[in-house]
Request: fold
Amino acid sequence: MSLYYRQLILKTHLCLLLAWWCLGNLYSQSRYLLPTATILSGNKNHQIALDLVVSEHIFHADRGLGGIPIDDLTRWIHLEKLALSDNTIFNSEGVEALRRAMEKTKLTIISPNGTSYDSTPIVNFGAKSVAKVDLQLSGTYRIGVVSEPSITTTYVKADGTRGRAVGVKDEVEIPEGSSNIQTRISQSRSETFVSRNGMTLVALAPTGMGIELGEGTHPNDFFVGEKIVLSFLYEGRPMVDADVVIVKDGTKHRNQRNEIKLMTDQHGVVAFQLSEAGFYFLETRTSVTIQEGPVDIQTASYSATFEVWPE
Amino acid sequence: MLKFKILLGVVMLCNGIALAGDAQVVIQVELELPALQVDPYFKPYVAVWLETPKRDYVATLCVWYNESKKEGGGTKWLKDILQWWRKSGSRTFPEIDGTSGATKRPGNYRILWDGKDSRGDKVPNGDYFLNFEAVREDGGREFKRQAITLGQQKTIELSGASELKKISIQLNERP
Reply:
């Protein structure tokens, strides 16, 4: 058991509930970020709001993705007004709870100049979470929720029910007689792109972590009827034969999801055209079986939101 | 006479460069903005620009937007000239001064182009696309493109469907 894995497990512990919930809904729930604008012009500084959501429907909010619960914030404001001496929110425990909520889900913003920061607060309104992003530089911003790799072990107990624990299988307590014991390391990224006063490439440079976009059509330059080319990288290398699913918004109000299903070629590339303008959701994932070491499966998921413009 | 003055004003505003000295007019566009019976009516943002057949940006002939707003507030909607913005505006912003002008009321306008890009370099003769785009607040948007050959004498007539009306392109011979 390497130190690396031990550190991961520690980090994972904080995300336990979220990870549990997300994995349990792997195929029916999408995790998306929806910005109020993807292209901005003008001399004044801009700001956008961003919905962070886990939902079955694109883009119809159902559950907020992380953030400080609005009820906690309301309580904070209320208590400040009363200035009570025995309030709980101002004590270290209350502050710690808010800090934990902030730490749990972070919005990673890569600026047009390549600098990255993740201090933007997210507020959870129940059905959706919302963050405000200030844009002062010219060029393309890359905005995403990037989860740290988390390690979980799943098993089927002797009575047939499923179990799950955080950590590798040698280190967690597994009931006697369990079978199908698997340890997986999972990582995810959900992102979107916003260009202010021009499109640039610096923020799009791959970081090498998880699934990312490689070279292709600029994500803020999608137009109806034009060929769009995207390439996908996993840990910096082309994702070959990966399934990519694209869905136009408004699934709640149509009978079919009308998913566009693509597969990456030997260079990790897909090419497609879209016939309608609007917001689109894109999703892909990878799963690799590992022969050696304590981890059996390494998985990563990726989702992105794009805006497509009329000709 | 009034109409002539308006036209002249437009030409001055829209293309001061082309009128300077004895510069040759390489493209002359007559553009009609339709009178629309809608309330409220806002004057459209309009752009006319040139692209290569591969859709690479070459030069803007004119861009009309609300310049009068305080602190460049009118630039907020330049992005709504979708095709022009992706090709040119975002790249050259805010250095569009040479070709920019105020929004115009319905009527006929003449746009003159001296065959040079924003750096003052001559755009070579050959095949291009001339693009027209108009977008109106609380209204519609229209985008038209026409294949042209720079340097050859030709007149091309186009008609818009909604936000643009009659467009006449006069291409002049150029060595």
Q: What stands out?
A: Residues 1-19 of chain B have pLDDT under 50 and may be disordered.
